Amino acid sequence: MKPSLNLESSYANSGQIALEAGDKSGYGFATTPYTPHRDDRDRCERSLHHTNRSQFQPEEQHHTKWFITESAHLRECFAEFLGTFVMICFGMGVNNQVVLSEEGNGTWLSINMAWGIAVLMGVYCSEGVSGAHMNCAVSFAHAVYGRLPWWKFPGYCAAQTLGAFLGACTIYLLDYQKLMKADPNKETTQANFATYPNPDISNVTAFYSEALATSMLLLCIYAITDQRNRSPGTVGTPFAFCLMIMALGMSFGMNT
User: Fold this and answer.
1) Complete DSSP assignment for 20-77
2) What CATH number did the domain enclosing 88 receive?
């Protein structure tokens, strides 16, 4: 049976068409969201999510702002930048707080929990515009499987990388005095900002650990967002991602 098409879905974008949930044919993955055009939905409803309607600006005044862009892809890149920035600020913030306080203000468990919440907040900041990839590996996998057009891939990766570095710089400035006191020669605290292999394992084991964890990450993302699966829905999906990141850190974080 030929699948019926739902052209009104906000997920039908980038040359992709979302299949209706009632049809059992096709892959049924949730496609990458996009920034709708002005005519797709009421701008007041879309911009303010049914709240604070008194703050909505008329169309003419709205487009006189210098920071408003008409480019949907540029908005997606900004969203990826913001989501990644927020995620890294929370994630590296907890890394430094636990290490620099010598576990006086947190433990290994709090690191994993905070990273899960960091991803949750990053998803809330960017999912509705860009799909909240926040990871070049995720964007690459989506491009390979047709969930993201290849021409968008460089912009996504550049935005994610810039957001990650700016987030790391923000936390570095926040904890600069503590870092200089704990490691004046900058020899022991680099792991607060990057992934380094455990000295007790080989590079091959470190590579295997990262490959396994990344594979589990992508597998779980595709399982969670598969519309033919038991979907957690639009509200539950970010929390499912949060739990997944916690589990990855608790299960595979020791080696690297």
Assistant:
1) PTT--SS--BPPPP----TTTS-HHHHHHTTS-GGGPPPHHHHTTSTT----HHHHHH
2) 1.20.1080.10
